[in-house]
Design a protein that fits this description.
single chain; 248 residues; alpha+beta; Deoxyribonuclease I, Chain A; 5 helices; globular
């Protein structure tokens, strides 16, 4: 089984957080993983990487943003990863699984929290789509809801979701089937002011659905996580001949 995923970790400088991620990767046999909102500066990334998984390869976007918003880590024994493009909101790569021979594009996303910045993200994803002829998965924290039912506690306007919807339609992407919490973030305010939203997701193209029809996204709640504030997400791909659960 090939397993990969992403996690908005909301800061990776804590040793306890590093231990938690290391445990999660090891216990779930993950060989490829995106981390977003790392908040790790350029002079500290090597130390943090070594605490997580010293033998793994790492790509960051620290050269384009001082806080290293996006990381992509992989075990070279499990995956060959060719990083094709890095921006302040994405790391775009072509992946080969050494275990199964599967090939696919994987883009890790951490969208800016303002709409002007996300316009750059939508345009970049359209650029990627034009050259992604094979299976493509786009996962991470988009900082944007996609549909009207993806936030409670605060109204959603058409102006807010239209650019994201246009991008998804133009790129011919769709949500991969998911298991776990529908809402992925909350503002941690009191009950009367609490807002829940779905801003983390994995989108895939038609070629992905054709090649990996039984693949799915699974959300986890680890011991120290509170509500929906920090949820790791994992895609599972299993060989069709060995299906025992919902996988590919």
């Amino acid at each position: 089984m090939d397993r990969f995923g992403f996690w908005n970790i909301r800061g990776l400088n804590s040793l306890n957080k590093q231990k938690e991620i290391k445990w999660f990767l090891h216990s779930n046999n993950i060989g490829l993983f995106g981390l977003v909102e790392t908040r790790v500066k350029s002079n500290n990334w090597l130390k943090v990487r070594n605490n997580l998984c010293s033998s793994w390869a790492l790509c960051t976007n620290n050269s384009l943003h001082k806080n290293g918003r996006v990381w992509l880590l992989w075990d070279p024994n499990c995956f060959d990863v060719n990083v094709v493009d890095i921006t302040s909101q994405t790391i775009h790569s072509f992946v080969l699984s050494k275990m199964t021979g599967r090939k696919f594009w994987f883009t890790v996303v951490y969208g800016f929290n303002h709409s002007t910045g996300r316009e750059l993200l939508w345009n970049k994803l359209k650029e990627y789509a034009a050259s992604c002829q094979e299976a493509w998965a786009v996962g991470g924290d988009f900082n944007n809801v996609l549909n009207y039912n993806e936030r409670i506690g605060s109204d959603i306007t058409s102006a807010e979701i239209a650019p994201f919807q246009d991008c998804v339609h133009w790129c011919q992407l769709q949500d991969i089937p998911a298991i776990g919490s529908f809402f992925t973030w909350n503002n941690k305010q009191g009950v009367e002011s609490r807002v829940y939203s779905r801003i983390d997701r994995m989108l895939v193209n038609d070629e992905w659905i054709s090649k990996f029809p039984e693949s799915y996204l699974k959300g986890f709640m680890t011991i120290v996580l509170v509500l929906f504030s920090l949820i790791p997400w994992l895609v599972e791909l299993e060989l069709l001949s060995n299906i025992t659960t919902c996988g590919l």
